[in-house]
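A.,

Following up on our hallway conversation. Structure tokens first:
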């Protein structure tokens, strides 16, 4: 086996793949001269080997560890397990990517009944020594022996009560000695064995426990949620302990080099004096803001500021740092790229370009398309903000409304029943993850801005309010009490505002977000790099205007059937369907023509100067009629009530027609252009409405640009028929109005045959738009609605499908048809414009594919337009850098 251990100052360059994120960070900080305690990393390869061996430490590792500990002893001048001058270490996990709170840490390892006395002598601080010892017993018992921390909390609480004190830091040395003794007793009771006094045994048990923690439930869930491969494994870092609990000139904290909520350039974070390790993130005591350190310990604060700026220069990114101050001296314990809100991601990226730290390309790659999506978060309508019932910390931005639930399981159950829920907890732990996933927002009564709840919610892009200490929470009985005395029970609705920390009773109206200057700037850079055009799917003038604001360069799909909805219009459409002759159909068609014309005027005006693709009627006609069962019931009732003969005759006719239009397989039935060919008057009406709208706008001085798109075309003859009809009607309208306009006729490619005969279709079609919703249904032979409800979930779970093909484009099947369609279509008509308007047009991975096969544009729903602009830029940049064909 290759080298299994690396010291932090090892000159060999090894990356995070082997050292894990934490190990790599410690090594890097050591190399750039920052104050880091000495230590070494056991590689992730050892963890993988541990699992390959079925849970056994590989041969030779013990000797390597012992040798490395001796080196650490030499460097520190202390001895592991010594009664006079003991070396203590922390044993910490560290995977390749950060998995906050998912795996385990043990501090103060090397303490036993002997060395605790040595520590007391060494530091001349008996209280400190016993505090360290009792913490170690708890952590070791929890992580290695599987005994819940709560049991030890009880032991501590008893002693606190006995000594009449409130805080841990107030317990006396004698009291802590008592806690240590009782804790050891507890271990013996539970495990039947005494707490291990051999420090080497402690060390190897701890190393194994860290390897094992890679496969605990919460780590597995976290990996699934974040697409982290199970094979990676974790490294183990063994580091000389430094102590934040040595008095009021010591402490521990976490800080970000910039504000992770807003992205503002300021040192940001929290610390606790006279505290150790996880005390800050665990949210047990509410910590102080880092700014206070400037007054309390000005020199340390200055040093931390210097370290922060060095770290940013080195990593060229915002960093998240863990540190400990031991008697005034700063030690860095960890650095990693800081998790941030979407807002901060954008701001940091843009600011760093202005500061000359990174270039635009790097900035664009730093922000994930989903982040851009998060930015479009809802807010509480500023006009309707009431009095908050409590205010906590603004831990993760955005507003959410939901019924209160008090446990993660409850959150999951209620969400499954279709409710929006707010998960309310004293604080969250990794065991609450499933509930946080299910909730709309998170509310905690304890914990700071870097508590588990805050960090995870920001990562998920979910609103969170933490540290709402004014609320009295009784989770067991499902009630919270406000400072004003109001009692809120399980199931009542609240609104939380993660941008202000406010909590409100009842459901406040939420409004859509506005995006700021940094966002606009980043997206304008995206536009410089992307090759793909970005259009929107929009059916109304409002959606058209919104998508234009989000940067859409036109409309890629207007679904005209959406204009046939609403009670008044449905009635006209029904009249059209019920007409028995072409003549009878004229009257309702004329009324529809007028309505559609004004719809198109609105849309073309909102998109003035930009192309608007209008898709003619697509769904089967029976969708506009009531269900036959309902009609039959209505008919029965009408008869019972003694309704008039004409009324009954009308219902009978409607029922007959509804039955006649019923289909076994509506998805593959009488829909799309098939309607337009059998009832040409319907499509002619729609084409006329578009052309008349455009002609009028042109006369009014606008610049309307329309493209008529025919759905579900599968044969050359269909295409020819439809194109001829469209040109005839448009030309009639234009010449009647005496205007000239450029327009296009094209087709959706959404049945497999269309892709196969694309070369023939392109003789008549001037553009193609891949309707990948239908194309996916018809290529797989899955009916989307049935598949998603019944078997797709299982398919994905069992790995039969890598992912839901309706969410992310199936490149090898559907994608192959797309490639064929593009190639053959362009062979016939080199200037053929090709885009995509299925749901996949707003999915980052599918957008990459669209770029790779050379589409001209993607079309996505309005809110996904910014995401699509960024995703399109990212793939163009990756291509430019030669990065995209790597794993194909
Ligand atoms: C499609 O099939 O991909 C499409 C965009 O059309 P619709 O979803 O309206 O069927
Ligand atoms: Mg379709």
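Then the amino acids I'd put at each of the 888 positions:
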């Amino acid at each position: 086996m290759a080298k299994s251990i690396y010291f932090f100052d090892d000159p060999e360059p090894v990356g995070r793949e082997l050292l894990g994120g934490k190990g790599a960070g410690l090594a890097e900080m050591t190399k750039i001269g920052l104050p880091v305690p000495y230590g070494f990393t056991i590689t992730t390869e050892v963890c993988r080997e541990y699992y390959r061996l079925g849970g056994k430490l590989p041969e030779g590792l013990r000797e390597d560890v012992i040798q490395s500990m001796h080196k650490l002893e030499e460097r520190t001048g202390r001895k592991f397990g010594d009664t006079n001058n003991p070396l203590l270490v922390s044993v910490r996990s560290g995977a390749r990517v950060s998995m906050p709170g998912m795996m385990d840490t043990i501090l103060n390892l090397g303490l036993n009944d002997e060395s605790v006395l040595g520590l007391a002598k060494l530091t001349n601080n008996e209280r400190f020594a016993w505090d360290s010892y009792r913490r170690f017993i708890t952590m070791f018992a929890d992580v290695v022996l599987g005994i819940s921390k709560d049991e030890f909390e009880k032991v501590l609480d008893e002693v606190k009560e006995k000594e009449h004190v409130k805080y841990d830091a107030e317990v006396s040395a004698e009291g802590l000695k008592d806690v240590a003794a009782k804790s050891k007793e507890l271990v013996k009771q539970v495990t039947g064995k005494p707490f291990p006094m051999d420090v080497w045994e402690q060390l190897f048990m701890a190393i194994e426990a860290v390897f094992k923690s890679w496969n605990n439930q919460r780590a597995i869930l976290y990996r699934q949620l974040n697409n982290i491969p199970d094979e990676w494994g974790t490294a183990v870092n063994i580091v000389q302990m430094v102590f934040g609990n040595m008095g009021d000139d010591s402490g521990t904290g976490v800080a970000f080099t910039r504000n992770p909520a807003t992205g503002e350039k300021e040192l940001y974070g929290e610390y606790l004096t006279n505290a150790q390790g996880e005390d800050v993130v665990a949210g047990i005591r509410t910590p102080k803001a880092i700014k206070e350190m400037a007054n309390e310990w000005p020199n340390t604060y200055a040093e931390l500021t210097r370290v922060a700026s060095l770290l940013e220069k080195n990593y060229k990114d915002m960093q998240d740092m863990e540190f400990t101050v031991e008697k005034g001296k700063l030690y860095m314990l960890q650095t990693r790229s800081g998790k941030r809100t979407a807002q901060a991601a954008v701001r940091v990226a843009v600011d760093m370009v202005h500061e000359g730290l990174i270039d635009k390309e790097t900035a664009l790659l730093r922000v994930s398309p989903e982040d851009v999506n998060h930015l479009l978060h809802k807010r509480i309508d500023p006009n309707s903000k009431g009095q908050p019932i409590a205010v906590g910390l603004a831990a993760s931005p955005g507003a959410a409304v939901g019924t209160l639930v008090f446990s993660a399981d409850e959150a999951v159950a209620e969400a499954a029943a279709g409710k929006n829920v707010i998960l309310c907890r004293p604080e969250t732990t990794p065991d609450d993850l499933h509930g946080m996933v299910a909730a709309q927002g998170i509310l905690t009564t304890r914990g700071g801005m870097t508590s588990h709840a805050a960090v995870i919610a920001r990562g998920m892009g979910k609103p969170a309010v933490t540290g709402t200490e004014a609320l009295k929470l009784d989770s067991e009985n499902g009630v919270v009490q406000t400072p004003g005395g109001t009692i809120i029970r399980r199931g009542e609705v609240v609104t939380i505002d993660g941008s202000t920390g406010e909590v409100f009773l009842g459901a406040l109206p939420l409004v859509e977000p506005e995006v700021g200057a940094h966002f606009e700037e980043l997206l304008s850079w995206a536009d410089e790099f992307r090759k793909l055009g970005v259009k929107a799917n929009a059916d109304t003038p409002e959606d058209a205007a919104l998508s234009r604001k989000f940067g859409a360069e036109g409309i890629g799909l207007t679904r005209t059937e959406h204009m046939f909805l609403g009670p008044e219009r449905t009635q006209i459409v029904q009249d059209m369907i019920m007409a028995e002759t072409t003549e009878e159909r004229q009257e309702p068609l004329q009324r529809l023509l007028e309505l559609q014309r004004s719809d198109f005027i609105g849309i073309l005006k909102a998109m003035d100067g930009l192309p608007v693709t209008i898709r003619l009627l697509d769904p089967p006609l029976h969708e506009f009629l009531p269900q036959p069962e309902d009609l039959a019931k209505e008919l029965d009732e009408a008869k019972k009530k003694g309704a008039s003969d004409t009324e009954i005759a009308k219902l009978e006719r409607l029922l007959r027609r509804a039955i006649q239009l019923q289909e076994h397989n509506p998805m593959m039935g009488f829909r799309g252009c098939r309607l337009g060919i059998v009832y040409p008057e319907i499509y002619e009406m729609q084409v006329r409405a578009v052309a008349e709208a455009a002609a009028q706008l042109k006369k009014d001085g606008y610049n309307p640009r329309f493209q008529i798109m025919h759905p579900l075309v599968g044969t050359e003859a269909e295409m020819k028929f439809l194109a001829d009809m469209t040109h005839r009607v448009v030309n009639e309208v234009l010449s009647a109005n005496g205007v000239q306009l450029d327009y296009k006729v094209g087709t959706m490619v959404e049945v497999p045959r269309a892709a196969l005969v694309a070369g023939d279709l392109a003789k008549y079609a001037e553009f193609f738009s891949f309707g990948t919703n239908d194309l996916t249904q018809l290529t797989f032979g899955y009916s989307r609605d049935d598949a998603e409800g019944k078997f797709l979930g299982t398919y994905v779970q069992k790995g039969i499908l890598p992912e839901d093909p309706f969410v992310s484009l199936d490149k090898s099947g559907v994608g192959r048809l797309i490639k064929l369609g593009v190639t053959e279509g362009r062979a016939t008509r080199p200037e053929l414009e090709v885009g995509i308007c299925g749901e996949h047009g707003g999915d980052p991975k599918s957008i990459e594919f669209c770029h790779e096969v050379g589409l001209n544009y993607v079309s996505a729903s309005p809110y996904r337009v910014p995401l699509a602009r960024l995703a399109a830029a990212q793939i163009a940049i990756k291509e430019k850098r030669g990065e995209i064909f790597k794993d194909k």
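The two ends are 30 Å apart (CA to CA). Curious whether your intuition agrees with the design.

B.
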